[in-house]
UniProtKB/TrEMBL annotation:
Superkingdom of source: Bacteria
Domain CMP/dCMP-type deaminase: 10-133
Protein name: Cytidine deaminase
PROSITE patterns: CYT_DCMP_DEAMINASES_1 (PS00903), CYT_DCMP_DEAMINASES_2 (PS51747)
Family: Belongs to the cytidine and deoxycytidylate deaminase family.
Keywords from the named record: Hydrolase, Metal-binding, Zinc
Phylogenetic classification of the source organism: Bacteria, Bacillati, Actinomycetota, Actinomycetes, Kitasatosporales
Length: 136
């Protein structure tokens, strides 16, 4: 494995650990069951929990986008979501894929297992995607 690949893998594992820590430490009841962690281009890691509500409360990934902006972290390079109870990495739902793609077309999304996450470009998670900006 090349040195750059090892560094990227370690950074991805750190992101998974941050999301896992948030899920295992702060998830509570049925309202907060999934954590997400994003890495900003300046290296900061921002975490958040989903806000479940039957009217369509935001997933953890969307909470992280707002939390990152509230800290001035407008440029995100990678994100991962981890469910509580040891359920591991959760791939983003369809709505989140669209939002992540629209906000950060070059974003990397971690999927797979916590031990062996796979880094995929968000565009690969949303082939033939609707590009909101093209229709305004
Ligand atoms: Zn979602």
């Amino acid at each position: 494995m090349a040195a750059v690949d090892r560094i990227e893998l370690e950074a991805d594992l750190e992101l998974v650990r941050a999301a896992t820590h948030t899920a295992e430490t702060y998830a509570r009841g049925d309202n907060h069951t999934v954590a997400a962690a994003a890495r900003a281009k300046d290296g900061r890691i921002i975490t958040g929990l989903n806000v479940y509500h039957f009217t369509g409360g935001p997933c953890a990934e969307l909470v992280v986008l707002g939390a990152a902006a509230a800290q001035g972290a407008y440029e995100l390079e990678a994100i991962v979501a981890v469910a509580d109870g040891g359920r591991g990495i959760v791939p983003p739902c369809g709505r989140c894929r669209q939002v992540l793609f629209d906000y950060f077309p070059d974003l990397t999304v971690l999927v797979g297992t916590a031990e062996e996450p796979r880094a995929l470009p968000v565009a690969e998670l949303l082939p033939e995607s609707y590009v909101w900006a093209d229709h305004q």
